[in-house]
Amino acid sequence: MKDQVSVSDKTRLNIPIANFVVIISIIISSVYGFSNLQNRITSLETQDQLMSSDLLKKADQTPKNLEIFMLIEELFKQTDKQQLSIDQNIHTQIKLDHLEEQLGKALKDIEKLKDKVRQNGNSHSINNVPG
Prior knowledge:
Elements: H1 17-60, H2 62-120
């Protein structure tokens, strides 16, 4: 039974002072290292949250966004006006093509009538009109 050690609040330990200093310094350095690590993690988390909130604020930028939306709206209005103008020009071009076609037919009809008048012998050209 000599191998058993009884430990209580009255138990005394005999440790050399050098070992005691080493144990205390290990405990102190561990607590200091843990404290520094905890502070660094807290600092990085705070920095991450600040950066995230700054990015969200910059993403909003309502005055700039409103200005951009106004410019886009104005560009759409101008595009619509230009499209209407193009549509009217196409319509006008179709009318002009139709009128040109009708004028060509009228000129052919006039030439046919002139030929018929000449065949009848009653030429009413400018050269034969007295005066």
